[in-house]
Structures are given as structure tokens and as C-alpha cells.
């Protein structure tokens, strides 16, 4: 026979276990609208669901990049106010070109002439007028197409075996770049 105390403990453990199968995401703008959602949609110990977490980190990253673009490129008049979004896209691509060697096997043998993202952008914008014109134009298409990936501007290495250097970089849309590979 189980003691009353024991029965109560088992009951409590059961209700405790079942009560954590669902919880509420504390982010006000959550799609769940404040309703209970399965705990699988949360990372362990978090009170903001996975969807909101990744959305927040995307927004944080976007703000980080815009701040750099404004402080270092707009302030020094390398770009104009209406080019901030184009520069934001270029920042991401340059950052990837500089860092990709570390993270992707396909890029182990590819070197990049720059180690600083803003320095790379400055050279591309100031030294390659046609590149920047094409980048801006393609960015407008991309942003106007609700960010359809095939239209995103990318940094293409003209000679695939070559590196990221000023003379070996051109703008291609993601779609064109994929076809080339
Ligand atoms: Zn949420």
C-alpha cells in the first residue's frame, strides 16, 4: 500500500511532467498569439520560442550591419542615404567572402585580398563604379521581388580558380551565379 504522502508525490510529479509539454512564448509579437504551444518549439530553458528567437537574431544582425554601414560608409559619404540597403546586402556578401574560407570546405583554397569588410566594400564601391551600379540595380530588383533568392546580387569570382581580388570580382545575380557553377 502506498502512503497518502507517496500518492500525492506521484500525482504531483505527473502533473508537473504534463504541465511542461506546452508553454507560452513570452515574446509579444509571437505568431502563437500568447497561446500555449508545444515545448518542442522552445530551446531548453528558453521562454521565447525558436521561431521568435531566430527572427530576433535576424533583426539584431540587420541592425548591427545598418549601424556599421551608416557610421562608416554613409558618414564618410562613400554611399548615399538611398543606398543603405544595397550596402547592407554588400556587407553580408563581403563578410561571407572574408569568412567563408574558415567555414566551408569549398573555399579552403580561395583567398581574399581583404580582412576587413568595410575596407573591401570601400574598394569595390569607389574603385569599381560599374560594379556598384550593377550591384545597386540588382539590389533594387531583389528587394522589389520580396527577396526572391534567384535575384539576390552576389559577388562572383570571374575566374573560378582565382581569388577574391579587386580585378576578379563582378556582380552576378544568385540565379546567374548558380548556373555558372
Ligand atoms: Zn514566439
From TrEMBL:
The identity of this protein, by name, is: Uncharacterized protein
What is the protein's species of origin?
Answer: Cohnella endophytica
Amino acid at each position: 500500500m502506498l502512503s497518502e504522502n507517496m500518492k500525492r508525490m506521484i500525482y504531483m510529479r505527473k502533473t508537473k511532467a504534463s504541465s511542461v509539454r506546452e508553454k507560452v512564448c513570452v515574446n509579444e509579437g509571437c505568431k502563437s498569439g500568447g497561446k500555449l504551444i508545444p515545448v518542442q518549439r522552445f530551446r531548453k530553458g528558453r521562454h521565447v520560442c525558436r521561431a521568435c528567437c531566430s527572427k530576433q537574431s535576424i533583426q539584431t544582425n540587420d541592425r548591427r550591419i545598418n549601424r556599421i554601414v551608416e557610421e562608416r560608409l554613409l558618414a564618410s559619404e562613400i554611399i548615399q542615404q538611398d543606398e543603405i540597403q544595397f550596402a547592407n546586402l554588400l556587407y553580408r556578401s563581403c563578410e561571407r567572402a572574408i569568412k567563408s574560407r574558415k567555414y566551408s570546405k569549398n573555399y579552403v583554397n580561395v583567398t581574399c585580398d581583404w580582412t576587413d569588410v568595410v575596407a573591401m566594400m570601400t574598394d569595390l564601391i569607389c574603385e569599381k563604379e560599374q560594379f556598384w551600379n550593377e550591384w545597386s540595380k540588382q539590389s533594387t530588383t531583389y528587394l522589389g521581388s520580396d527577396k526572391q533568392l534567384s535575384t539576390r546580387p552576389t559577388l562572383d569570382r570571374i575566374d573560378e580558380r582565382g581569388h577574391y581580388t579587386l580585378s576578379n570580382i563582378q556582380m552576378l545575380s544568385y540565379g546567374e551565379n548558380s548556373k555558372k557553377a
